[in-house]
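Lay summary

Proteins are chains of building blocks that fold into shapes. Our project writes down both the chain and a compact code for its shape. Here are two examples, one after the other.
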Amino acid sequence: MKISCKETLFTYNVYHTVKAFFPEAEIEQRVDTGQEPLVKLDLDGGSCFCISPADVRECAGTVEFVDARGDLRPGGTAGMRELGDTRGDLRPGGIARKEEAVCKKEAMQAQKREVTRLVYRFLSQTTGKELAWGVLTGVRPTKLATQLVVREGSEERAVDVLRQDYAVAPSKARLAVEIAGREKALLAPLDVRHGFSLYVGIPFCPSICSYCSFGSSPLDLWKGQVDAYLDVLCKELSVVAAQMRGQRLNTVYVGGGTPTTLEPGQLERLLRQVDESFSFHMGAGGLLEYTVEAGRPDSITREKLEVLRSHPVSRISINPQTMQQKTLDLVGRRHTVQDVRDGFHMARKQGFDNINMDLIVGLPGERIEDVRDTLRQVEELGPDSLTVHSLAIKRAARMGQDGRVPDAGLQDEIEAMVEAGAVSASRMGLLPYYLYRQKDIAGNFENVGYAKVDKAGIYNILIMEEVQTIVACGAGSISKRIYPDGNIRRCENVKNVSQYMERIDEMIGRKRELFRE
């Protein structure tokens, strides 16, 4: 299949819309500024479709400005008079230019949305299929839902817009709006302007799953250098803590990789560094959540759980991904189904009352009966929250390098798997509280987190909705500074563990620049 676009503006949405309808197709894409059509599609079998400039309706009237937090500013672009530049300065003569830039950007986005709608409509008619999320290609549909509720004045009207303007299926539109409302309530206690969250990355795993693209390293290769890694990580934490003094720490998330690959003494050292570097107390006005991923059951021991309990860790994850042993063996997870049960019961005995479990639907070889059996076993354990992921195969993952993609012929079955996850969560008394999507996701569906009323993962919402500054330490971590006007600046630590350790002063310098007054 071939895609030719007049401007790069259209390439991302058009490519991913075509890919959603034809996930197994080889797609050739190019930009030709000299062509007449805005977009030209040549499908296998000789079918051709073109979009001319005349096909795209003009953007008329005042374009309303919606900032990145989903707040609709009164007066549309007039609200820009309050914003100034990203540092908050109101520069003489700069306001008009900024208003003009915003109007131009919004007009371009409107044109892009219309082109995407036309491509979607053609492909839907050609294939006889509809996509669950319609023309939406982004990873954060709940952010759009939040914006629409503000703009339209009601959840019902926001659902209607998602259905009519974005071709989102009714059930998904209602889900997005429901979660957007729940997220707003859960984030209400946060100090968005003066608070921040902390991410600490441990980039080691017992083994690398074939679907994983996170860039984690197998522990066997780094066994002798973990202490050296902790040396530089603790240095980074200490410097960052001093810079953030005076700001309120709302959530801590220790992830990876698998933090519980650390030995008990190493884990104690890391958590003690966090406790001593950052001044916080649990509860109202202080730390709302402290999560440590114990995701791989084969990394959990009683001694490590005791270390976690000796610190203010309030939430852990024990992630089976599936309770089918044949699949665990196939994807390279070197643990058994019984390890999952043993680790979960061990954590309960240690007093952990907020345990999350992650599952993936669409794993190779699994059918709906396998997923239902997995859910039955998870229900017997009774986690406090459950995240149901649809498999997404990235190029960086071993599956992606092998050329594997989710089976397009199983879309109806994957839809049934996703629905089975929702029904199972409901039986356990878990409500949907956050949602995100990924490129190349199985069946073009979504990932949903479900939780008991008081057990939702606050950090999960923050990382998706981008409403609070996140300071991230460790190899491959990404810090985000959220400005009052909704602008976002990022700085990344290098992914390579050796490079991170060698260039730690450079990584620290990047953060000093990002978070300076």
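And here is the second example, written the same way.
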Amino acid sequence: MDVDYANNKASYVLTRTAAEMTLATSDIITWSDYRREDNLQTFGLLSQVSPDGRYAVSTVQDRSVFVPQENLAYSQLFFPIKGILAIYDRQSKEYSSLAGADDPQLVQSNPVWSPDGKWIYFARTKAYELKAKPGQGTVLLSQEECQEFVRDRKEFRFDIYRIPFNDGRGGTPEPLPGAGANGKSNYFPRFSPDGKWIIFCQAKNYMLLQPDSELFILPAEGGTPRRLECNGPAMNSWHCWSPNGKWLVFSSKANTPYTQLCLTHIDNEGRSSPAVLLDWFTAADRAANIPEFVNLPADSIRTIREQFLNDYSFQRAGNEFFRQGDTDHAIEMYRKTLALNPNNAAVHTSLGFLLYHVKKQQADGLSHLQTAVTLDPSNGCAQYDLGYALLLQNQPAQAAIHLAEAVRILPKGLSKQYNGVDMNSNLALAYSRIGQYDQASQVYARATGFAPENAKIRYNWAISLAYEGKLVEPEEQYRKAIALQPEIDRSAGFHDLMGVNFAKSGKFAEAIEWAEKGKQMALAQGQLDLAKDIEGRIQLYQQGKPFVTGK
């Protein structure tokens, strides 16, 4: 059941049927969890459960034309122009693409299972890149973005393909003979319960709500399609077989602009009787659409109620707003979460991050981050966010404690926001600021392992090594840093420090060379006092004397 839970359009309830059904958050899956690291939005279009109930299949990483039309009867133009098929395994709780139906250069949609669960049939065509780019990152495209379809009525047609399921491994897709390459758009395939027949929709273009849509039948292996006799004069669309395979219910606009449901009998030869209007499903000012037969006695489901409004539902809503960059609504949802469950450490972490870094409410942000760490010390994200905030507050000793714990918990990082490069480089910076240069050097080495081409990390490492009193190592990292990014070479203080170190080692020629460059940098940057100090040290070096701080 599509539930649009927690502001996530890709959410579905996946649960067993019962006389008294309560839908809980534990029953919810979201197709947005498929490869979140790709950062591609998902609508989760037209999901279907496998015959054995173990798997679900859906269109993911999709984009769809979804625009209003002036015609009352056909008030929407809605069809996908991008999408792949993904599988959810209820046993492993994992998502995966269906190999053979996961080509991002194609649209793969409308998936349905064969009765034995061995095949998946779906609609397919070449994906389309819109001329207008503003909606590139959105699932549903506006009228302005779809002018080639809305104004120019660009042709867009689907063919029906099938692919072996192979326990989720997929295979080679093949066109269904008779349901494609016919100058028409072919979509919404549905199996008869015995697996003998396929009934599908055919129209000149597009998919949903097409005035010329008609129902066709052909053998499941393909063949010559036959137009069903039950078709009315306008829009014969979504359809479903009865469990015994003798009846077909379908949506129609034969009688009124409001969609109605009709019933037809299908005989053994695949011929249909004249359609009968299901008038009990009809109201004067209502549309009845997307019918489904359920293979259960009529009293098997008496009530369905939801039990979603707990702290987790508000948390998920907040997370969705966070991902969309809607900070204010994310904060609102997180505060509602904490009103129901003040001990939700993950929400304290997210709220603290937004308040500190986005809303610039540092005191409140720190408070939430400290609460998160107190509630759950094993939360590496909370430890990192608190440590980084303390580093920005010029509290490096406290920062180092939390940053070190974050790196211990998440040694390779976790995501783009919590990555190994930033986590280690900030820990190294904290160690440097409290004079623990040996620890800083070890962590900088680890950070460069994550990002060998990061000039800033190498430059900061060079400075830390210089403070440690090293000669060869800081110069080595300095040379590598400026080779990667020449403009990074701007620290007069680093050059001055290297001059001091070389002079202490009796290498006065090198000391003078470093110090002279440092003086020139200081002068160019308007640091006149520093330039004067360095000039004094240069005079000492020229006399063969090291600079002594007096400590």
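What can we say about the second shape? The longest strand covers residues 55-68.
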